[in-house]
Amino acid sequence: MTQYDYDLFVIGAGSGGVRAARLAALSGARVAVAEEHRVGGTCVIRGCVPKKFMVYASEFASHFKLAKAYGWTVGETSFDWPTFLAEKDKEIARLSGIYVTNLQNAGAELAHAKARLIDAHTIELVGKDKTVTADKILIATGGRPWVPQDMPGIEHVLTSDEAFQLEELPKRIVIAGGGYIAVEFACIFKGLGVDVTLVHRGPNILRGFDDHVRAHLAEELEKKGIDVLLGCQHERVEKTESGLISHMSSGATLESNQVLFALGRAPYVEGLGLENAGVALKDGAVIVDEYSKTNVDNIWAVGDVTDRLNLTPVAIREGAAFAQTEFYDNPTSFDHEMVASAVFSQPAIGSVGLTEAEARHAHGKVDIYLSRFRAMKHAFAGGDERALIKLVVDEKTQKILGCHVVAADAPEIIQMAAIALKMGATKAQWDSTCAVHPTLAEELVTMREKYMPQDLGAVA
Q1: pLDDT digits (tens, 9 = 90+) for 234-281
Q2: Mind telling me the catalytic residues?
Q3: How far apart are the C-alpha atoms of 429 and 268, rounded to whole Å?
Q4: In whole angstroms, what is the distance from residue 193 CA to residue 209 CA?
Q5: How far is the C-alpha of 330 from the C-alpha of 321, rounded, in Å?
Q6: Which helix (H) or strand (E) holds 49?
Q7: How many CB atoms sit inside 10 A of residue 130's CB?
Q8: What is the pLDDT of residues 412-436, one digit of tens each?
């Protein structure tokens, strides 16, 4: 008779948890997964996937304008939010169902309940009047939107979770935050015809991204009619008969129908009973080693709950590495270096490697190659949207340390660029690559002149 009910118990059925559970179950292990919400986690249910559908929906307004310049006769257009929501929800339900089916086909059991640790091997299924035991436990609960709970009027504020289920589009919205979620929603709502004001307490949006990228996108947002207010933040939100009033630290007041707070996300550890098992945290995140193991010998954690690199593909790779290590006798750790990321703003951002500031700090002297230009599609139509491509190169070794693209197809471009950077490609190797013409991406292999701070009027 075995000592435990399961070989592995996974808390959280998001991307990382599901991947780990499936692979472990396919090895023949007895696996169970607990999920208190819908299967699929943040990415599928209230994150990447529905966000991308909203991005697609919001882009059509600009497509219609471009179409006229290319000779198309475009009739009267309108957008129906309820129709879009219904279709979006149908697709999300389908994808969630696939996750459930994949778990079941692999042989894993699924419990629709919140799981709480009683000790290092015992799990309570809250509300089910049931406890189970497991040899190994994996925490994969992801993150949740963070809001300042002590701010007056916080009960009137939306987070990204609720933004996907608004009953109707507001006429005006104030979005607080300067990260990728705030920027993406600002572009989405603007594209859907909403008056948007983006407020951020810092000196510029997208902290952590390259400074040229940050300045360039801020300029493009302003061109699109998004009001960007920097250096201020909410002090309180007042509800009135006609809507909401945001009272700002600058003394300004902003009237709107909705206020969306996108101030970052925090690891979701509340109510998990981690303290009962002695799992150590730092700044609210589960501390793990390179193999995703916590300080407790039989407990691991992957994904956003560890606050390492909070991207869905990273959580999937971490979950797979855990399963390989613990159930296939194949010690595997995921390398978090040179992971590409995308911001689905309009225009979008693709980035991999170091920013210029990071590269100078780590490597000293660097060569910079930077180009700003109107892409063919917009130039033909007389538009003023500009693309940006930047390479950060180690002066001594000529190894490319960073690649940053701001353009409509930036996320697609950066995926392939990431392969080259991961392999340690040099600028000479990129230069020896023949361009694909005419494309925006050809700039990556045709830039020859080093950038000087006075060029293009860009950020020094």
Answers
A1: 999 999 999 999 999 999 999 999 999 999 999 999 999 999 999 999
A2: 437
A3: 44
A4: 28
A5: 9
A6: helix 48-69
A7: 11
A8: 999 999 999 999 999 999 999 999 9
